[in-house]
Amino acid sequence: MLKIGLTGGIGSGKTTVAKIFEVLGIPVYYADDAAKHLMNNDAVLKQSIIKNFGKESYRNNILNRAYLAKISFSDPPKTALLNSIVHPVTIADAAHWMQQQHTPYAIKEAALIFEAGAQKELDLVIGVHASYDLRLQRTIQRDNISEDAVLARMSRQMNEEEKMSRCDFVINNTEEELLIPQVVALHEKLLQNLEKLYE
Question: From CA 59, how far away is CA 91, in angstroms rounded?
């Protein structure tokens, strides 16, 4: 089974692409959702977060996301520290999840695949590309936040051109090309390549 990453900058539409793959019968591991679950349920990870960011990191034994975001995202070294604590646990969880799948390939959807070094655990990476302006506009509308808040998030991600250049395949979500036909074509190509491998 192929282990495939799916990545893209904030507002690129990678979750939409992931949902299309799911409709095609491909299981998807959503790294962001998994990280939130692990931060609430993995005892060792919780202790590490409390040790580094204080008891206020949890309220009634539930992750205090607002507090953690406030102190980590305004301070790049603290962002890096939080990522260094959470990413290895999520990567290990994704690897375990991949082992449980029985489809020709499975997908890990994550914004920070290259930033976290997670590509080392994957066979291929698919990128979802959209223009800077489109990503900015989508995120403002989706999350109902200010332009400055979106720009702050974008600044913590790898440059779009650099990210896409590292991907094995790129899907354009620019509203100039239909999305579903691109995903279906890539799905068929991956299945054909797998058939050739096992001939």
Answer: 26
- What is the value of pTM for the model shown? 0.90
Weakly modelled stretches of the chain, pLDDT under 50? none
Helix (H, G, I), strand (E, B) or coil at 13: coil
Q: What is the rounded distance in angstroms from the CA atom of residue 174 to the CA atom of residue 171?
A: 9
By CB atoms closer than 10 A (0-12, 13-18, 19+), residue 13 is buried
What is the CATH number assigned to the segment(s) 1-27+101-192? 3.40.50.300
DSSP state of 103: S
Residues of the chain with CATH 3.40.50.300: 1-27+101-192
Joined tokens for residue 68? 């953690």
Q: Is 183 exposed, middle or buried (0-12, 13-18, 19+ CB in 10 A)?
A: buried
Report pLDDT for 79.
Answer: 87
CA nearest neighbour of 127 among 117, 138, 140, 112: 112
